[in-house]
Amino acid sequence: MITHVIWDLGDTINTSPHEGLDRKPLYEYPEVQLRLHVKETLFRLEQMGLKQAVLSNTAYSDSEMAGKMLEKLGVGHYFTFVYATQSELEEGKPQKPDPEVFDFMMRKLQIHRSEAVMIGNSWDNDILGANESGIHAIWLTNQEIAVRRNVTKKVQTPPWIIPVHDVGNIPDALGLLMQLP
């Protein structure tokens, strides 16, 4: 039974800094804004009784800084736990798609993999990482934000991957996953 939704940040919940990687705290970038339909979707998922968390690869921003950005954007109260890896500039530090990072999230949330769904825009980091860790995933496939480098790696099923074009489609995709035995 799905109880938790784990969100990526950059280009999933919020827009990314113009320079790509965060080289200062995420909350200091004026151009970082919520993506379209995010606030309504977070509210709908809360109404569905789902708990929500964040797992995001970051360069400079730690979990507290990522949380401050979410507060600044008016959505911080939706998340029970925020984890930013601070790994994009540090060789060898665990980050998505490493199963170690997904295992860490499951321990912190005190849930089993079958209770989680990962939502993200990166096929390689968010979706394959979740899939290889036994976690369902919803992939944002909108061409403006979707990232896919690995086109040959096979996925395992289950867990299931549902593609959606827009954040606003996530509640319906979750509804489908929640009907699975």
CATH class: Alpha Beta
The CATH superfamily title: HAD superfamily/HAD-like
Query: Biggest sheet: strands side by side, in what order?
Result: 3-2-1-4-5-6
Could you say what the CATH architecture is? 3-Layer(aba) Sandwich
What is the H-and-E element order?
EHEHEHEHEEH
Q: Structural class of the helix and strand makeup?
A: alpha/beta
**What is the share of helical residues?**
25-40%
Amino- and carboxy-terminal Cα gap: 8 Å
Total count of strands? 6
Topology:
Layout: E1 4-7, H1 38-47, E2 51-56, H2 63-72, E3 79-84, H3 99-109, E4 116-120, H4 123-132, E5 136-140, E6 161-164, H5 170-178
Parallel strand pairs: 1-2, 1-4, 2-3, 4-5, 5-6
Structure overview:
With 181 residues, the chain is an alpha/beta fold. It has a single domain (4-178), classed as 3-Layer(aba) Sandwich (Rossmann fold), CATH 3.40.50.1000. The protein is built from five helices and six strands, in the order βαβαβαβαββα. The protein has helices at 38-47, 63-72, 99-109, 123-132, 170-178; strands spanning 4-7, 51-56, 79-84, 116-120, 136-140, 161-164. Strands 3-2-1-4-5-6 form a six-stranded parallel sheet, with helices on both faces. β2 (51-56), α2 and β3 (79-84) form a beta-alpha-beta unit. The longest helix has 11 residues, at 99-109. The protein is globular, with a radius of gyration of 15 Å. It starts with a strand and ends with a helix.
